[in-house]
Amino acid sequence: MRYFAQRLARFFVVFFIVTFGLMILLRLGMNAPGDPARTMLGGTVTDEQIATANARYHLDDPLIMQYFWWLKGMVTLDMGTSVQQNIAVSSYIGSRVLVTLFLGLYSLALAIIIAIPVAVFQAYRRDTRRDKAISIVSFGLVSVPNVVMAVLMVLVFVRTLGWFPRTGEKIYPWDDPVEHFRNFALPVFALTLPVAAVFTRLLRGDMIRTLQADFITLASAKGVSVRRILWRHALRNSLFSVLTSIGLQLSGVVGGAIVVEQLFNMKGMGTLLVITILSKDLFVVQALAAIIVFVVVVVNLLVDLSYAAVDPRIRQMRSLG
Amino acid sequence: MSPTTQAASRDTDAPLLELTDVATHFRTPRGLVRAVDGVSFTLERGKSLGIVGESGSGKTILSRSIMGLLPTHGTVRSGSIRYAGREIGNLGRKEMRSVWGKEMAMIFQDPMTSLNPLMKIGDQIAEPLRIHLKMNKVDAWATARKLLQDVRIPEPDRRLHQYPHELSGGMRQRVMIAISMACGPTALFADEPTTALDVTVQAQILDLLAEQRRERNMSVVLVTHDLGVVAGHTDEIAVMYGGKLVEKASTRRLFAAMKMPYTEALLASIPKMSDASHTRLAVIPGRPPDLVNPTQGCRFAARCPYAQDRCRAEEPPLTSTADDPDHSYACWYPVGSPEYHETRARLASTTNTVEAA
Amino acid sequence: MSDTTSTGPRRTLRQRLHLPRLGVLFGTVWLGGLTILTLLANHVPAAVPFIRYYDTKVKVNGKVKKYGFGPGLDAWFGTGKSAEDIFARCIYGAKLTLLIGIGATIIGLVVGAVIGVLSGYFRGWTDRIAGITTDSLMSIPPLLLSLVLVLRLDDLKEQYSWMGWISRPWQLSLTLGLVSVAPFARIVRAQTMVLREREFVTAARSLGASRSRIIMRELMPNLVPAMVTVAFTGLGILIAAEAGLAFLGMGVEQPHTWGKMIDIARDDIEKAWWATAFPCLMLFLTVLSFNLLGDELARRFDIREAAV
Fold first, then answer.
1. Domain, as residue range, for A258
2. Do A223 and B116 touch (CB under 8 A)?
3. How far apart, in whole angstroms, are the C-alpha atoms of residue C131 and residue A64?
4. C236 vs A25: CB contact, 8 Å cut-off?
5. Which helix (H) or strand (E) holds C239?
6. Which residues of B touch C3 (CB under 8 A)?
7. pLDDT band at C6, cuts 50/70/90?
8. CB-CB: which of A10, A143, A274 is closest to C248?
9. Which of A222, B199, B323, C199 has its CA 20 to 30 A from that of B185?
10. pLDDT score recorded for residue B7
11. Distances, alpha carbon A35 to alpha carbons A281, A283, A284, A285, C160, in Å
12. Domain C22-301: top CATH class
């Protein structure tokens, strides 16, 4: 229980620090009064317009106060207004968030689904030619930058084979599952493979280490089958490194999603971010960044908690204090 | 031989375990390591055998060889291992799996690392029951509970749901014994079962093993470097050195009338309560033998105080005397022989001269 | 009865010549060759006559044609949107990519190492504060942070004239360097905590060495292997990051780095595939080389890397 509380506290602290830091970063250098408003509205603005904006968005208040206003807004899902488009932010980023969410979720899930059986196979058939071949491929995949991966996907699957469309349309699974699949398949694949390679390498290493432990030999000596030893005994004890890296990989996937969305012209958070950062639509940027950071920190929290779920020793150690 | 759960109903006439010229070599970059180099003996049903030797003598490898628990890469096995009349020396891991846990069981040295830290005790005991005896979970756990009682663990219900790290070292070793007994095997191999435990707990564990052996009519092979462990708990003792069996006798006979100088030295190196204080520890000089390039003659010759030229030139075969055919040894000039006494007298006089001078 | 022939594994030709593994060989050759070519092309063009100039238009039958040539003898990697030689551009672009990457790695490593050593050695509150800082930094996806930083620096440059020296390459180096501080700090901290417990540190302490002396004389030299290893792998990642930023339009204006080349040609990917494919290839092989070398170093120095 205490473990959980500690982790939760840390989650909040980090979230606040990061989002506040981001806000400061975005407002850096806008010291003259009226600057934020001027920047956001862009072009020529009258003093009147600035005053209105200031009043509406509390742009005059000290930064801390602005942060609190913003936080309050986020919690009530009022993410401010896109000053340029003059519509509520929350209304139109929803669909974008969803697209990127699908992208990220599919990629990570697929990566894990691929990595586990491959790594188990590699650990069992260690040092055989197949194991070595897979290791080489994994190493190569890890070295492929997201840009390159995406381009490769396009070159092979769109240009040469023509199986998939060049642009990822925003189609939801509940609208048309097949088209949804066709549009998301390539971007997801581009993101998944390098992450799957990382997971595979980590898991293989841990599995090999675990398989040398005494309790595995004992399990053998009990007459337990190879399959059961691999999946029931060894795997569970080898998840530590992979779990630890999920958070990091998620950060990478977010970055990758931005790039991939750009290449496939998808209407997700990534492309929106690029546009709004360039046009200095501050509220939108803050909202998007906050959502991303929130997801990342939550996932890290979940990973931390999962350690306790998997390993009873951690569960009990912490509760003792 | 159709396997049954009760060990008692087996054919009790034939020896349970017959080893003939068993050898296990490992291919390494340095060369061929002759870890076990031609060992032969038999073991009867329900008897306990102690295999004694220092590190590197091959005792652990021998027990693993009999079980078949060796790594597959670079291992060369030869010789015949017959278990209950059936040749198992050439069986692969797949075939052995039906034997492991069911007819032959093994417990290891370190109970902390031998149990799966993420699995409940109950599950770990129930596992072989469900695999070999096809029990369902409820029955298996009930049997596990009974097994915990057999090994004298208090509050078995609570313990079943606990994890290994919640138990003390002695209790974990008991759990290991429970796991090994689960399917009623006919032979148990105990590889240094007490080395990692406190002295007080050691005796309890050994007594427990002896009790189980009697109740189940099970053969026990106790592998250890500690003569004290085998002294009270075995029927026979086999001494190993340099991958070879150098002496084998009933326990009583071995301690009363040992033949090998090595055995004598082992015994002498145990500090005794009756010694005066500050008595120097007797050690066996020299280092363990090279298993890659063994010498031509007796492997112990380099460190044996009674070694003569013949010992270094020719390897002594395993023989036994007429009056005690069960006591075998491999020595040209065993303890009690005229040459032995001669050398001994000579050594004693030189020591005296040194002291006198 | 003794065996005279060795029963060990046969010594391969490679082992007998003491050649390094294939990967290391390739990595070294690739990086070495690339560095030489790009330095020469940028500074001593006469030495590499087979590399066309940056702006030369490769004419097809006397006329300037968009994507005139595919890969072939006329232009090894084909020509691009403005009839430029893609191979030549790739070589020119390499210099800045490498420089930015190296700059970022140095910044990140120096700052990260300081944080790492201090928090690893002193523990306590120093460690906790540093921990929260690095955790926070690592919670922001690197690309996101880089985007924001680069653009804000753009704005700040307009505001404060003293920041005028921060050219685009410097902006990128600083940004990427900052983003890489957290992972470097983590790794250095882990290594420090391991080394701290070793005997030579205890020995120095018992001799009365001051803390700063211990850090400088005992710890730092032993951290160098880890830092060098991580620098190589880090370089690979940072170069990929630079390409990503360039692809999104945040890169250097001139000369075009590989990322930007991919961006320019991406709409025509179906017709003129070579304009994207070859920069991608260059990028991949370069990152791969750094990873290969980093991996070999890790093997040599026996370092368990943090999950990268």
1. 91-319
2. no
3. 24
4. no
5. helix C220-247
6. 31-32
7. very low
8. A274
9. B199
10. 44
11. 13, 14, 17, 17, 15
12. mainly alpha
Residue A63 falls inside a structural domain? no
Please check the confidence at residue B312 and state whether its pLDDT lies above 70: yes
Q: Do C155 and A198 touch (CB under 8 A)?
A: no
pLDDT for C306: 41
Nearest to C140 among A152, A245, A293 (CB): A293
Strand order in the sheet with B319-321: B104-107, B187-191, B219-224, B48-52, B236-241, B244-250, B324-329, B319-321
Work out how many CB contacts closer than 8 A connect B with C.
14
Average of per-residue pLDDT across C135-146: 86
Tell me if B118 and A221 make a contact (CB, 8 A cut-off): no
Interchain pair C247, A245: CB under 8 A = no
Query: What pTM was computed for the model?
Result: 0.83
CA closest to B74 among chain C residues = C8
Residue C55 pLDDT:
73
Q: Would you say residue A68 lies in a domain?
A: no
Kindly state whether residue A46 falls inside one of the protein's structural domains: no
Query: Could you report the predicted ipTM of this complex, rounded to two decimals?
Result: 0.82
Query: What sections of chain A are H helices per DSSP?
Result: 2-27, 35-41, 47-57, 63-75, 89-124, 129-142, 146-153, 177-211, 214-221, 226-228, 235-237, 240-263, 269-279, 282-310, 312-320
Q: Does A132 reside within a domain?
A: yes
Buried b (16+ CB within 10 A) or exposed e, A60-94: eeeeeebbeebbebbeeeebbbbbbeeeebbeebe
Give the pLDDT of residue C3: 35
Longest dimension (CA), chain C: 88
Q: Residue B216 — φ and ψ, nearest 5°?
A: -100, 0
Write the DSSP symbol of residue B303: G
| Tokens of residue B239, six digits | 């001494």
HSE, CB side, 13 Å, CA atoms: give it for residue A131.
Answer: 14
Question: Residues of A near B (CB-CB distance < 8 A)?
Answer: 213-215, 217-225, 228, 233, 236-237, 310-313, 316
What one-letter code names the amino acid at A152?
L
**Domain range summary for chain C, segments of one domain joined by +:** 22-301
How confident is the model over B286-305, as pLDDT tens digits? 777 777 777 778 888 788 88
Distance CA C79, CA C57 (A): 9
pLDDT of residue B351: 65
Structural domain count, chain A = 1
What domains are there in chain B, each with its CATH number? 3-95+223-230+237-270+286-356 (3.40.50.300)
pLDDT at residue C231 in the model: 92
- Tell me how far apart the alpha carbons of residues C244 and C250 are, in angstroms, rounded to a whole number: 9
pLDDT in the model for residue A56 = 66
Look up residue A231 and give its two tokens. 């999946």
Other CB atoms within 10 A of residue B220 CB: 23
Q: How many Å apart are CA B348 and CA B328, to the nearest integer?
A: 28
Hey, is C253 helix, strand or coil? coil
Evaluate if residue A284 carries a pLDDT over 90: no
Q: Are B110 and A214 inside 8 Å of each other by CB?
A: yes
Q: What is the CATH number of the domain that holds A304?
A: 1.10.3720.10
What pLDDT, on the 0 to 100 scale, is given for residue B161? 92
Establish if C148 touches chain A: CB-CB under 8 angstroms. Answer: yes
B31/C7 touch (CB, cutoff 8 Å), yes or no: yes
